[in-house]
Amino acid sequence: MSDPYERSAEYLDILIAESWEPLAPALADALSNVRARTGAVVDLGAGSGRGVRVICDALPQTPVLAVEPSAAMRAVLLARVHEADELRERVTVVPGDCAGVDWPDGVRAVVALNMIGHLPPGQRRALWGRAARQLAPGGALVFNLAPPFTPVEVERVRTARVVVGELEYEGWASARPTGADEITWRMDYGVLRQGRPLAGASVEYRWWVTTEGALAAEVAEAGLVLRRTGDSGLGLCVLERVSDPASQVG
Q1: What is the distance between the alpha carbons of residues 189 and 103, in angstroms, rounded to a whole number?
Q2: pLDDT, tens digit, for every residue of 20-72?
Q3: Using CA atoms, how far apart are residues 26 and 236, in angstroms rounded to an integer?
Q4: Which residue range(s) make up the domain with 198?
């Protein structure tokens, strides 16, 4: 399978930094409210490791399994983990995806940020079922649900701009419907000096869309309950087992 991040990895970490400013404290708050007190945390689609750092800060001494299928993104992730003693001792970086990587039973939490749309419906349902089986009592799965929720056209828009030294880095996004529950994102990245392009890359990837209501019904089939947490604009959701005590408490 081709890796769209092979061409975009050099830009992604700096261009997502601003979006993590509100997301990091919201994720930390969600993790601090997970009732399970033992077990590892599994970070699916760990990317460049910004979420890994949040997990380690929010849950001291908890081991983290950071799962990332892209070799290009793992290079950034592993460098981030290796350069910090507190991460290097606790974080295991694993190549693979959520379908192919083994988790230990009794995990304290699963984090799946900015990646649910990568999963076709069948794989998404398999993830819910796996979480229901392998979460520790009181454990939770934390993910985010971002628009669009239906297959619509998304006009091209600049998503980020960062200045590093003498150069500007930009990210642009657009999407087109490509299926009944699917869109294809096009991401354009550019490097400019004084407004003049120096380098860039464009990538496309498939993204499966769904509504919160449809997801709530879907996870219920696996014995999970969905609740929102944090600022509504972040789309942060927590899944817990219906059978766990207090799972309905918001």
Answers
A1: 34
A2: 999 999 999 999 999 999 999 999 999 999 999 999 999 999 999 999 999 99
A3: 8
A4: 154-208
Same domain, 185 and 169: yes
Predicted TM-score of the model (pTM): 0.94
CA neighbor of 54 nearest in space, from 89, 77, 23: 23
- 18 and 65 housed in the same domain: yes
The two structure tokens encoding residue 241: 């087992």
Residue at 38 is within a domain: yes
Do residues 163 and 192 make contact, with C-beta atoms less than 8 angstroms apart? Answer: no
